[in-house]
Amino acid sequence: MKTSTGVASSLLLRLDSQSSTPLHEQLFEGIRARILSGALAPGLRLPSSRQLAAELDVARSTVLQALDALTAEGYLVARAGSCTRVAPELPLLTGERSREPGLTGAARAANIGRRQGASRGPRLAAATRALRRSPVGAPRLGAAPRAFRPGVPALDLFPTALWARTVSRVHARASTGLLDGGDPSGHAPLREAIATHVSVSRGVRCSSEQVFITAGTQQAFDEVLRLALNPGDPVWVEDPGYPGARRAVRSAGGRPVPVPVDGDGLDVGAGLAHAPRARVALVAPSHQYPLGVTLSLARRMALLQWAERTRSLIIEDDYDSEFRHRGRPLTALQGLDDAGCVVYVGTFSKSMFPGLRLGFLVVPPSLVDVVSAARASASAPASSLEQAALAVFLAEGHFARHLRRMRAAYRERGEALLEALHADCAGVLAPRPCDTGMQVCAFLPAPLSDLRVRDEAARQGVEVAALSDYFLGRRRESGLIFGFGGVRPDDMRAGTRILARAIEAARRRGPRSSHPRAKGPPPR
Amino acid sequence: MKTSTGVASSLLLRLDSQSSTPLHEQLFEGIRARILSGALAPGLRLPSSRQLAAELDVARSTVLQALDALTAEGYLVARAGSCTRVAPELPLLTGERSREPGLTGAARAANIGRRQGASRGPRLAAATRALRRSPVGAPRLGAAPRAFRPGVPALDLFPTALWARTVSRVHARASTGLLDGGDPSGHAPLREAIATHVSVSRGVRCSSEQVFITAGTQQAFDEVLRLALNPGDPVWVEDPGYPGARRAVRSAGGRPVPVPVDGDGLDVGAGLAHAPRARVALVAPSHQYPLGVTLSLARRMALLQWAERTRSLIIEDDYDSEFRHRGRPLTALQGLDDAGCVVYVGTFSKSMFPGLRLGFLVVPPSLVDVVSAARASASAPASSLEQAALAVFLAEGHFARHLRRMRAAYRERGEALLEALHADCAGVLAPRPCDTGMQVCAFLPAPLSDLRVRDEAARQGVEVAALSDYFLGRRRESGLIFGFGGVRPDDMRAGTRILARAIEAARRRGPRSSHPRAKGPPPR
């Protein structure tokens, strides 16, 4: 039939060709909802894409686009030359949704005076030691970024003039209310623009009241952890993982418990085995740092179930997953959370530029009043005028356009880096797949010390991070983290050639048995 | 009809002659409420005072008293030889409680309390309590500033266009190094400009390496205290004093020890007697908050000697002493420190505008490496582009010119406030001398509760802070803190007239024996 609606009888799906939502997105959402509701059972075989396309009266490419996205997110499994099935392991969320994450905080108010942590002597001594053993070739963090420093976006492509005009306009019209700093929860129009953006682009379900502006990711972690933790509370952190997350846990009085990360992301089972009573899990489900893996759907569900059951909190660190090089970005964990256990943390450090120092929290509805109250007597969380300028930038569509350009640029740069590594370091470095963001992890063969390669490379003017630095527990692998965001495609080879020489030099020196642990990797 | 009740049919007003509230106040409140609710539309012509008096069966002088007050507050406009009308635009000083989110917030808080209660522990419970006891009249912090909110600079005189041009220029030329965030210690040119400025204008002795940029005073306190304190360490704080200082002490794990402040500033002898082993003293020697006193030279010397002898740290909170109305600003305590015991904390929240969120530390030479190391793996402390813009603003002399203008403006506004207080509140309020900054403290005679006056004033649309809220130990005095920075000289009387009525109303209600402690004063 030739109407505005196609029906897939086999899946009971109905698409609306007159909707503003693209057909492939409708299909994606429709199948996803049926899997989550249990209407499409785990292991169920799907009709072929050809058959679906015919039933729905849409192009086969539309169907493939939707199926690819569902496969990438783990809802479907496809094997080459075989059919597509609903993923067999899908622990569906069932049971009551009414409970909230437990934020005991017990004795915290009184305890505020007994912060967990080293006494002053050790603390200052540690700081001083870190300073002394700072590696010779380590660059000043404030210096202009070099290849391949992780965490540097494609600043050469940032629309500086457009941003300057936006900022200038907002400054020129600044009201005294804005100069005075404004709402401690954040500039209202920015909160609204963010709520809209993350709903559309990240599948986050929220109203603008759930959005709180922060001065970057670190401050966001800090704020949530301080509210959630009692002194000494265990917190799951990814291992290897982002050192800033562990720092924030320690600084809030918590105890980071390293939970191994494998090809499916955080090993939730291992976390349950080692620290079932953790109060918080701090994870980067969409694009783990530094390995770049994605938390599988089965583990997402297991993680959410654990949080709901134990009334724990999940902090979702979604630092760069907007930049999925192809297809649509993976849906945020927050979008699957019916129990109000997930605090979503976003940042504009990658999508705009690190110097902006703006990020945000999306808290569950049950925590809105608590976070508001905690902020009530505080100052504005960040420059009010830059908040206002960013709100305009989002509202006028510049931000979405910039993201689209960046996605293409990172795809191009990622491919250029992999080619360059293949040309100069094949057989030594084994890069992981690179489909998101602006860095890639490449493993080194066993006897080669990644710390030594890192130092050799730094000496020759190339910056990489050593995977060893990201482990909290036992170092299981050796590898290098390359940031390619800030490196033009034509400049990749210059860097990888130097790196190849550095690897050669490190190899000649042999394994490094007792290299002092460096002060750690650069900020992400 | 000769009963206890008169009715103004034309305004649907009803007065109760047996109420303890004077008739003119009932009339005032009645008309005001109807204007705010919209029942009396903007521009509406009122019956003549003669007609109203007849309808309400009250003396015409009673009606005139009410109408005058309403006119003074801007609810009504009266033209000579003409009728009285409802103001076509609501005046700035209104704050209709029922429309403010504060009430909803309180309602929501009660709701949280029910839903979450004790299960989430003392910390969240405390946050919830704070929300609930938020005073009825307390304005939203994000709202446009009202007279006489403390801590609001003369934003009406800020050179917005000049600052917008500076910011725009810096943004348009931003290097990738700057976009990347730059040095975690702060933008080097800004550190240099600050070192020069505080040397010249505050007598601070330092090189630019000792200067570290912060995102405001609170973050500066936080950083130094975290480095300096062991859990439970006592810290001298001024009493009465700045609540933000105590919050920072607690949040860093320290124990605030209240040390009384008298006419010579912090009573160093009392501190020595009560807590000789304090690790840190947090003081505002040049212009104490909220009393406005100056630490005497003898006490400065005693404080420095104590710090040197016990190897303790003094944090000098120099938040607004640039604005000495006449003569040169007092020299900073840091300039007297030969032993390297003083950390100087400055802010641009007053000298530029609060929404900028930029401040700085000047640490002793012995701490430069420690603070650098602690920051090494952190991000930039604040927006790099705003740091760069501020550096240009200082270097080009705009900042110094702006300070000079502000000094004159604050002198003028301070004098206007004292005159207005003399005119409207003489004999009740005893203002302290006012020679620096943008607020003044005025004592209230003993039985009058400053909290009650504060709440009455808020109800009538004027904001003052209550001295009681600044005490950590026993409340020794009752008084009000007036911020005059944001109030134009011509607008002072409008505020003080309302205040006089609020004092009158508070006096009639008698002392307030068990008023719940409010959530505290607004940020400074």
Major protein interface: A-B, 96 and 98 residues
Instruction: Characterize the quaternary organization of these chains.
Output: homodimer
Radius of gyration of chain A: 24 Å
Which class of secondary structure composition applies to the elements of chain A?
alpha/beta
What spatial order of strands do you see in the largest sheet of chain A?
Answer: 5-12-11-10-9-6-7-8
Strand content of chain A: 5-15%
Which helices and strands, and how do they pair?
The structure is a homodimer of 524-residue chains.
Chain A (H helix, E strand, L loop, with lengths): L4 E4 L4 E4 L6 H15 L11 H8 L3 H13 L3 E3 L5 E3 L21 H4 L8 H13 L27 H13 L3 H4 L8 H15 L8 E4 L2 H12 L5 E6 L3 H9 L3 E8 L2 E2 L1 H7 L5 E4 L13 H14 L2 E5 L24 E6 L11 E4 L5 H8 L8 H12 L2 H28 L4 E2 L7 E5 L6 H10 L5 E2 L12 E5 L8 H18 L15
Parallel strand pairs in A: 6-7, 6-9, 9-10, 10-11
Antiparallel strand pairs in A: 1-2, 3-4, 5-12, 7-8, 11-12, 13-14, 14-16, 15-16
Helix pairs in contact in A: 1-3, 2-3, 6-14, 8-14, 9-10, 15-17, 16-17
